[in-house]
């Protein structure tokens, strides 16, 4: 098996892994003599050692990755092998010796692992939402002639001898993928194909931009002037001047719900922060105990209970779908299948490009001790499951091996987009029946997750302290499936209908009612965020009723509080909040929100997977890194939006928009 990471290849040379200790000893003597003449210091120096601060969670000794891979540089022919970096994983536990020593060892191990050593599956690969607090790791630099199985067998025997009669049990695991040697990059067919697409897009963008500039100069007009005509719109679809003009157009049509742009962008930032927390919890820290300490601080619940961000997206999606569809029905422009085709073509081109990036060249964008687990596994899943993404069924099929962690939402959004007319059309056709049907649908959408949690004894929300098994069951059966996430979307459909009916009316809301609405909205948000404090504590004993009530109601409650914000601001009762959220600066930021949603995972995962040493984590460091990720993501997203998303959006509109000559 080979995976190519920049100039590093995860490889396993042909070698016999069924070696006994005498053979290994003989080989080791030969290797030792050879190394003594060349690179002994570098090989030894680059291996890991027992670090300080292990009681604070500093249990991942990564050594010096780059020094190890360069240790035998220039001596390979003389040695007959090259240096190899192996990251060994140790699982520590206690054995009952009938004495108080076990209690002491258990307490020490719990301190080292933040109490999670019996809650984590250290052999999982790629599940980037699972914290890693009990993963003991030790880096070793050794000759490439030694296989991972050889190393595992030898270290296992040594650990058994060293811990004999101590009450400590050590299990050693060394995977082939955890051993890396320096190697030249080798492009695969898929990589070449993806690079070819990028080159073609660059040429197309250059040609379209040149054509646009020439046409504009011929008209003796400014470059920013739009070129009219369908054929010219197609030819200038990839024009950078044209697309940058569209991106930074701050005009807001009167019929637009003005605060949605800001809420969409701010929710995107919240999603990014949630995923940043996920990637950070898998990183090696020198103070991993910091994670369990923050759980005890109720003020940090905003961070620990941040998975409500997507429910805001679902609400907004429902509002826009309902509001737009009702306008189309009023003008007899609604088409179910043409609407779906437009939606699919709107979402898929930039999505497919990012899937291609994850499937191919992402593995060449870095290297490091944890690069394989953090990036290469994700890339492998994309190569295997890319078609599930493009069919928008990956939140149901093989949803624990997602190509792009955030992609489940896009599938759910498409499903709900297709389902929406079942509720919106009755609202337009027969108000009373439509409202009744929507209320029934809302009740069912609340009952479904509650019933799933109750009958299967699932947790009500995910947190950093629940077991890996509970987290996997929660995401697989409660968090990802569309039918479990419908309540915010259905509420959004109802809100969109209300805004449509009142779009040309100035409604009069009493000041007392307005204040009550805002206070209630804020109290609901506080209750949803901070009300889960007990549920995520280490000493919390599972209660199925609490889990059911919170799991079934909190997403709807959150969406209800945001719905008031959208409605009040849209009808002029938002005060300074409406002034802030309706600021025109959010217009271009909202336009690149989809591109940010697609790209931010790559930015964050590559940043985490490149780590060479454990880092000290605190609130300042977290925000410092997060702000850096925001800037990089915005820049990358602007490129994706201007060079790819916007051109295909222009083409899609030209191909799917109905012609109305009389208008």
From TrEMBL:
Domain of life: Eukaryota
Keywords: Membrane, Transmembrane, Transmembrane helix
Membrane-traversing stretches: 192-214, 351-372, 408-428, 435-455, 486-502, 514-536, 556-580, 592-610, 630-655
Residue span of region Disordered: 1-20
One of the Pfam families matching this protein, by short name: Acyl_transf_3
GO molecular function: acyltransferase activity, transferring groups other than amino-acyl groups
Biased composition (Polar residues): 1-12
Nose resistant-to-fluoxetine protein N-terminal domain residues: 20-174
InterPro entries in UniProt: Acyl_transf_3_dom, Nose-resist-to-fluoxetine_N, O2_lipid_transport_reg
Name of the protein described by the UniProt record: Nose resistant-to-fluoxetine protein N-terminal domain-containing protein
Taxonomic source organism: Timema douglasi (Walking stick)
